Amino acid sequence: MATNTKVQTLARYLQEDFVRRMAGLSTAVVVGDVTFDTDANPMIRVGTGVIGAIGALIKILPFEWPLALNIIGQSAPNYGSQSVIQVIREAGLATNTFEFTGHLLATVALRGARVEFYESANGTAPAAAEIVTANLKGTWLPDLQNGLLLSQ
């Protein structure tokens, strides 16, 4: 699905939040600028992206609802502002401390979006290509009763 303005704005806000949050960690963490994947959805690299180093990759995309149809049976436009935030980090690293992971997940969870957490294999740097079902470790919504209501 193509990106939209809401997703791009959310990416900019997240990047600014990461810069503020990661500055207070006991280990310095570099936060990259917002870049775009081949599907035009924004991504943010937190950390250097080198194998074995502290860091993660965050990808933000619009929420897809393939069953939504308009009155004449065509795909309905998404009027809501729902988003999905995908977080991937390298598994099994001592450098990905609880302090880092806690700040990382708290930052994305506060944005009212569906969050998907992935871990690439140890020895594989976090990359968009590693965001596959086999690497999915957890998914959560901002509100269990109202689903994506908070992101509107």
Helix-strand layout with pairing:
Elements: H1 5-23, E1 31-36, E2 42-47, E3 55-62, E4 83-90, H2 98-109, E5 114-120, E6 136-140
Parallel strand pairs: 4-5
Antiparallel strand pairs: 1-2, 2-3, 3-4, 5-6
Helix pairs in contact: 1-2
Describe this structure in words.
The protein is of the alpha+beta class and 152 residues long. Helices cover 20% and strands 26% of the residues. The protein has two helices and six strands. It has helices spanning 5-23, 98-109, and strands at residues 31-36, 42-47, 55-62, 83-90, 114-120, 136-140. It has a six-stranded mixed β-sheet, covered by helices on one side. α1 packs antiparallel against α2 (98-109). The longest helix has 19 residues, at 5-23. The radius of gyration is 16 Å and the shape is globular.
Structural key phrases:
six-stranded mixed beta sheet; 152 residues; alpha+beta; 26% strand; 2 helices; 20% helix
Question: Whole-number average pLDDT?
Answer: 84
Order of strands in the sheet with the most strands?
Answer: 1-2-3-4-5-6
The computed structural class is alpha+beta
Number of strands: 6
Spell out the helices and strands N to C. Answer: HEEEEHEE
N-to-C terminal Cα separation, in Å? 19 Å
Report the sheet-strand fraction: 25-35%
Unreliable runs, pLDDT <50, ≥5 residues?
none
Radius of gyration: 16 Å
Largest sheet: 6 strands, mixed
Shape: globular
Tally of separate helices: 2
Helix content: 10-25%
